Automatic annotation (TrEMBL):
Pfam families: OEP. Gene3D superfamilies: Outer membrane efflux proteins (OEP). Its main location: membrane. Belongs to the outer membrane factor (OMF) (TC 1.B.17) family. It is found in: Cell outer membrane. This is TolC family protein. Keywords: Cell outer membrane, Membrane, Signal, Transmembrane, Transmembrane beta strand, Transport. Residues 1-17 form the signal peptide.
Amino acid sequence: MYKRVFGVLAIMTAAFAGYGQMAFNTLEEVWQYADTHNTAIKNAAYEVKKGEREVQRSYLDLLPDVNANAAYTDNLTIQTTLIPAVIFGGPEGVYRPVQFGQKYTYNAGFTAQLDLVNVQTWYNTRVARETKELNKAGLNNTKRNTYQQIAAQYYAYLLNKEALRLAAISAAAADSVYAAVNNRFNEGAVSLPNMDVAKLNSERAQQTLITARYQLLSSLNSLRGLLGLSVSDSISITQSLGSVSNTVSQEAFQEDPSIRLAYHQTLLNYGRYQTANAGAFPTISVLYSNNTQQFDNTFRPFDAAGPQWFPATYWSLRASWTVFNGGDRWLRSQKAKLTYLQSKEDEEQARRQAAINDDNLRLDHQKTVLLLNKAESVMNLSYDNYRHISLRYEEGLASLEDRLRAFTDYISYQNQYLNSLSEMLVRSYNIKLRQRSF
């Protein structure tokens, strides 16, 4: 039975030794790799770049619009107009049909328009800048959330390695008890119920061993998914759980990325509120136009000897102002104002809640460290007690019931230790994240 337990461990060790092409020694190394390979982080980075392009576009809107045009018209039928015949020396009251124009018309030119005053365009530039800053804050918030997911799977892997180690010890102990009880049962010195309890403990220990083994593989696959790797990519974690300290740095917490996100969301909504009010201001622009035309009854558009070109050039100063549009502008402004006030409330609540969460995190970490130390001490004492009773049992000084009860207690305290260890690891990596500047 010992060979079966430690054979499983040997297979697991060989399996993970094969994952040597991509090795991580610390959680920080995994985070660094995720910065350029995690899909959520890369998509958030794309949003930042899109925001930068939108800022550039908003500034380009401040430049003049220049449009060139060219046209060729073939008058298949020239319009007929009636004019008084008296113009040509004819009698009064008589009209003569005539046709003005020529068959072919050529037109070319350009226009340039610049808005001297356009409040909405100015505010659109501000909105674009705040959108870019919001996307940056979103990238940092995405990093924080992704780091948290990675840390959960990273420490789950280490925890499952520890659970596998403890499960192997428990399985070996359970198999030893079962083998001894079975021999005594065959000798008629142990009752069937006691033998069944020993067998039950052995089977449960094997179940725990199997569960720990497959949870170890699952946590590694989950980590692959967060790092943008496929199931066939080799990955290994060389850090051991024993090297993870239950003490954390006393560095001050950095600003919560969610606060920065809420702050820029407030500024963005304020900019949109100002943009909604921009319709109340007039738009003043200057326009310059330069066109030229040519008329001919013969199709020869590129002939230098053709008819004369007639230029038409002008500039103008224009002002437009929407005086009334049925109240739509006012309603949109009020809606934007309410959205701004709502985001301001969300920002203030985010600041208050972040402070509460930070204080609770410190308290929870202190509590979990104390409970972990106690749980580890109780588990070790329980295992020593089980070994002591086992020796007494071999010497005939303790009953089988005492030995089985001591083993059951050890398994229970072992589970309590693993739960306490899990709680401590969660608080530890959350504190690391709060001390990290994004």
